[in-house]
Design brief:
The complex is a heterodimer.
Chain A (H helix, E strand, L loop, with lengths): L3 E3 L4 E4 L4 E7 L4 E9 L6 E6 L4 E3 L2 E6 L4 E6 L8 E9 L7 E3 L3 E6 L1
Parallel strand pairs in A: 2-11
Antiparallel strand pairs in A: 1-3, 3-8, 4-5, 4-9, 6-7, 7-8, 9-10, 9-11
Chain B lengths: L3 E4 L2 E4 L5 E7 L5 E8 L3 E8 L6 E2 L6 E7 L2 E6 L8 E8 L6 E3 L3 E5 L1
Parallel strand pairs in B: 2-11
Antiparallel strand pairs in B: 1-3, 3-8, 4-5, 4-9, 5-6, 7-8, 9-10, 9-11
Classes of the chains: A mainly beta, B mainly beta.
Chain lengths: ~110, ~110
């Protein structure tokens, strides 16, 4: 079973729509959680960390459910510039390696 | 100036050639990583290093070697390139406290 599973999409939504991505992780020892954004042929960039209590950054809201080993990202009022691939990323508790485990990504296209 | 840089950005080579990809960082991080990305497969870890004296294999190290010349420099070598090593290669560093990783712009390698 893969460490991190994501629906690959693609998600195609109109501007202004709300879209949600889900992600599950297999190792209950996972400790840190992130969403990264990757534009076509560019490097992944950190979008936001995911905290146990949930957190919001502007139009983006991240949620974590440790019991279900589930992470979500909600994007409100989608913009054309939100078109990208979104990577779900986890890090294990107790790991001294700093190793992150990446999902394969969910592709989002926002159309005018 | 970019915090993590990679050279070359693009490279086309022939089967059997030795290739070196270089990575430099100004973030002052001890931890550095090399990944490859293939369409549909996501990011896969090749090698990682905690500090200058530490080198560890990732999940797909066969056919690759690395050298950590200094805290700021981490090089990836393909001793004898083969076509299935055609991919996008990323170098990354990580923050010890948060575990967040920061990626270089990538090297697009084509092996003919």
């Amino acid at each position: 079973r893969k460490e991190v599973e994501q629906d690959p999409g693609p998600f195609n939504v109109p501007e202004g729509a709300t879209v949600a991505f889900n992600c599950t992780y297999s190792n209950s020892a996972s400790q840190s959680f992130f969403w990264y954004r990757q534009d076509c042929r560019k490097e992944p960039k950190l979008l936001m960390s995911v905290y146990s209590s949930g957190n919001e950054d502007g139009r983006f809201t991240a949620q974590l459910n440790r019991a279900s080993q589930y992470i979500s990202l909600l994007i409100r009022d989608s913009k054309l510039s939100d078109s990208a691939t979104y990577l779900c990323v986890v890090n294990r508790r107790g790991s001294t390696l700093g190793r992150l485990y990446f999902g394969r990504g969910t592709q989002l296209t926002v159309w005018p | 100036d970019a915090d993590v840089t990679q050279t070359p950005r693009n490279r086309i080579t022939k089967t059997g050639k030795r290739i070196m990809l270089e990575c430099s960082q100004t973030k002052g991080h001890d931890r550095m990583y090399w990944y490859r990305q293939d369409p549909g497969l996501g990011l896969r870890l090749i090698y990682y290093s905690f500090d200058v004296k530490d080198i560890n294999k990732g999940e797909i190290s066969d056919g690759y070697s690395v050298s950590r010349q200094a805290q700021a420099k981490f090089s990836l070598s393909l001793e004898s390139a083969i076509p299935n090593q055609t991919a996008l290669y990323f170098c990354a560093t990580s923050d010890l406290v948060t575990g967040m990783q920061y990626f270089g712009p990538g090297t697009r390698l084509t092996v003919l």
